[in-house]
Amino acid sequence: MRFIAIIAVAAGLSACATQEMQPTTTAAAKKAPQCWSGDHSKFFNLGEKTSIAGVSVECKPTSDGKAAQWVGAKH
Question: How many whole angstroms separate alpha carbon 23 and alpha carbon 42?
Fold first, then answer.
């Protein structure tokens, strides 16, 4: 009985070890940066404007383009 259990565990582990990873394309999976608003409990896309704590702001990319930040909106 113990032998069957050992075989079952070994078969399960070998099945996990032989699975191949699916190739991923980083270009398709990469999303544009977004800004988080705790006041609204959601993310905003680049260029979207809203009011946070009574201040008009716009979601703008950082200088390196890898992130986004809230910037005072120009009227």
Answer: 31
